[in-house]
Amino acid sequence: MTKVEQQKALRLAALAARRAGKLIHDNLGVAKVVNETTSHDIKLELDVRCQNLIARFCQREFPDIAFLGEEGESGDEESRYRWVVDPIDGTVNYAYGIPHACVSIALQERLAAAESKSPFGKQADPYKSVLGVVYDPFQDELWSASEYEGAKLNGRPIRVSPRSEFGEAMVAVGFGKTAKVMKVSLGLFYSLSRTCRKVRNMGSASLALVYVACGRFDGYLETGISLWDIAAGGFILERAGGIFWREQIAPDHKYRMVATNAGMHGKLKRLLLK
What we know:
single chain, 5-stranded mixed sheet, 7 helices
């Protein structure tokens, strides 16, 4: 993809995120139609509506690019490029009327075979992100980045924080949805609570990642998270000077990850892997 094409794709992703974000914003106080509930998650009819809106935008201009979203996928799975979308990241917050949720859109490029080895006997996610957009419609904050542009918040350049000591750090930890993941995550939460200034779990992975990117948080850990939650925010973090380490833990687009500024990375990664 040329620089001009990628710039066009970035503008398109930002427009699609804003359109979906308006739909989310305008329906915050409206009774929600629930498609599915589990012990720790909720799926809304509005998730599907927002993803369809984003897919129409993206595929109208780039019909050959595949589409992978939390609410399903379409297009040629062997395509060189694919969109990776979470139409409402923070759905449980949103369903309860908490205005902390966002739209996440990444564009990914397929890696060469030598770069995309998977521990699961097949190349489950042989892609890398080349641009990302995260939009919080409740704060009207749009984070963006591409291979040709650094990370920005509402058009202004951003950088990760310079903090390197746990005693000064604000760190986010996700709890996941399975008993195994929760057990590990709660151990991390306890350990960090004793040493960091504050530990947070705010319910939106994409926003946690871009909060690290712009220095609000210093690190963020997950022991079980989906690709569509991290594809855009992780790329934006890297373009803001941060480190986004991830490891696939299951073939269905599941990862564990450490997202940090440079000063906190070694400490937090050792804590996750011990």
